[in-house]
Amino acid sequence: MAGALDPKPRDWALALPLAAFFALFFIAPLGLLVAISFETERQMTGTLGLGQYAAFLSDGLNLAVLRDTLLVGAKATLLCLLFGYPLAWLCTKVSARWQAVLIFLVVLPIVTSVVVRTFAWIVILGRHGIVNETILALGLSAQPLKLLFSETGVVIVLAQVQMPLMVLPLITTLQRIDPNLESASRALGAGAWRTFFKVTLPLSLPGIIAGTILTYTACVTAFVTQSLIGGSRLLFMPMMIFQQAMDLQNWPFAAAVSVIFMVSVLLIVAMLVALSRSRAARLYG
Amino acid sequence: MSQSAGHALTLRGISHAFGQVVAANAIDLDIRPGELVSLLGPSGCGKTTLLKIIAGFLRQTSGDVLVDGASISHLPTNRRRIGIVFQNYALFPHMSVAQNIAYGPIAAGRPKAETDAVVSEMLDVVQMAAFRDRLPRELSGGQQQRVALARCLAIRPRILLLDEPFSALDKNLRLDMQIEIKRLQRQSGITTVMVTHDQEEALGMSDRIAVLSRGNLEQFAPPSDIYDRPASLFVNTFVGTANLLRATVAGISASGAAVRLADGMVIETGRETTLSVGAAVLVAVRPEGMRVSATGGAGAIGAEITAVMPIGPALIYEVTLIDGSSVKVVQEREADAPLAGPVFLHLKPNRITGLFPDHSGDTHKKGN
User: Is A154 within 8 Å of A72 (Cβ atoms)?
Assistant: First the structure.
């Protein structure tokens, strides 16, 4: 950073309160969680081993829950991207006044409680909800569709609830793209689509990746939305951990499941980060 | 580069308004094939608006843009075949030099072999063959400009537009690139329109200059005419330095008007005027159209030196006239040149660039 002074040794002290907070309330509990996951006995007798991990990984049903959770997150993230990208693009094309209105609408869901939003969706997606009434009225289907308590419903609601996490980084990235680049592309004979796919899209990739990481991690861990919209028949990892810990009081197993879930999500995030690093290295050195 | 005949570009009655602001007011320009024309004016004069209209980025409120007599106003930018080099070059940052240059030919659906040939040719034309696999951020400003130019020429544009092409370059490089672009433009014979606010750039490079002010075309003429025979007071003061001597019209004859200067002296201007005898007039003279000396004589105007700046071979004077107005003079540095005190100002023959109506005189306040 040009012009920035090197921090003096004692300047680091300014970060200490936050560091202490993190150590006490984040690092320590995480360490505890990992430690507990190695307890082989449910009663936590102190016998250590990999029993809990083996128990989880050897059961096909558990693996199916993990797969479903990662997949539902991927689907919701993809939906966010498909709907969020045009919205973000629109935000950068309209006048400053309309941009403010659009960004306000995008951010609006964040200021509402996730529980309230999810209940609203139950009303909308239910058998006699707005969506089904409309579909029946239009004669698009003879029967009401099963949207609530289905994976489709979970994906739709997750996408809406987490949309701001996708749209905001995209707006930031799209705004940073020099508008002359699109003009140059047009002047060189490229149509609107070629300009989009060859210039705008590749240059917005950092925003796509940032938005994807935020949305994905939020979607796979969205306990409230997954449970309320998915209902009792659909089981996802956060609910599974909750049940093991709170209902069955099997803390070591819940801890092991948590660690496995965390590592799986981190692996996916790491892949996305690596992808964005290689792009960023090429673009900005 | 293939020696293609240039194309004619015509602007017919182009007007454009942004809300209430008129950026272009009924502009007519006939640009001949192969000509390099500068649109010159201060910021906000409408020159960039005109460039955007020619490129198709903006649709004019009224008027028509024609290439070789055929209207292109209805065509979108990507079908006009008009190349543009942006002020910031606008190279695609995620593509190599070669990929940037190949962008146009690929978009036009040229076969790969032809595209490769064009890329190599253009790299040679701008002497950037050694940099073909570099990314734009790995290039200097001048190199980026060469690539931008090559990328633009690769589509064999009918018209080349340059938007403030040298403003991002440092001074030494600027002259090199000016010469380079002038050479390429001459070689290819491509009709070129350059937007600039830098008068030296416009004077040095252009075949003709269109001077714009507040959306109006003030004058469209070769550089020497713009400098020596400005059509308006605006052109006279915007291009080059102008000294404006306050006077009244003393007489009008076939050879031009005679004016009475503030100290009562009457001089023949050799310029015609539409003003009538007795009208207040500003007599425009360039700094090099006058001479300061210690000795008087016929037609010499009394003055007082306020500052002298010796700059290499030249002396720049600022002198104050009897009416309080100050005048700048540039002349050769001679051994006996006066450096202070009362001096005489001599107007060189036929060096008055124009007579313009003086509206400030109405108030009888003669300030500077």
Answer: yes
Nearest to A215 by CA among A46, A83, A57, A58: A83
Q: Closest CB to B55: pick one of A187, A189, A202.
A: A187
pLDDT of residue A39: 92
Establish if B93 touches chain A: CB-CB under 8 angstroms. yes
Chain B partners of A199 at a C-beta cutoff of 8 Å? Answer: 92
**Smallest CA–CA separation between A141 and chain B, in Å?**
44
CB A189, CB A83: distance < 8 Å: no
- ipTM of the complex as predicted: 0.84
Size of interface A-B (CB pairs under 8 A): 71
In chain A, what are the domains?
60-284 (1.10.3720.10)
Q: Do the first three CATH levels of B9-236 and B242-360 match, i.e. the same topology?
A: no
Q: How does pLDDT run across B128-158, given as a tens digit for each residue?
A: 999 999 999 999 989 999 999 999 999 999 9
Q: Does B69 touch chain A (CB under 8 A)?
A: no
Q: Residues A47, A51, A52, A58: what is their CA dihedral angle, to the nearest 10 degrees?
A: -170
Superfamily of chain region B9-236 = P-loop containing nucleotide triphosphate hydrolases (3.40.50.300)
Q: Is the pTM of this model over 0.90?
A: no
Longest dimension (CA), chain A: 73
Residue A171 CA to residue A237 CA, distance in Å, equals 31
Smallest Cα distance from A253 to chain B, Å: 48
How does pLDDT run across B340-351, given as a tens digit for each residue?
Answer: 888 999 888 888
Query: Which of A124, A110, A234 has the alpha carbon at shortest distance from A163?
Result: A110
Give the residue, A2 or A174, on which the prediction is more confident.
A174
Range 16-55 of B in CB contact (< 8 A) with A: 55
Sequence ranges of the domains in chain B: 9-236, 242-360
Among chain A, residues having any CB pair with chain B shorter than 8 Å are: 178, 180-181, 183-191, 194, 198-199, 202-203, 282-285
Q: Is domain B242-360 classified as CATH 3.30.565.10?
A: no
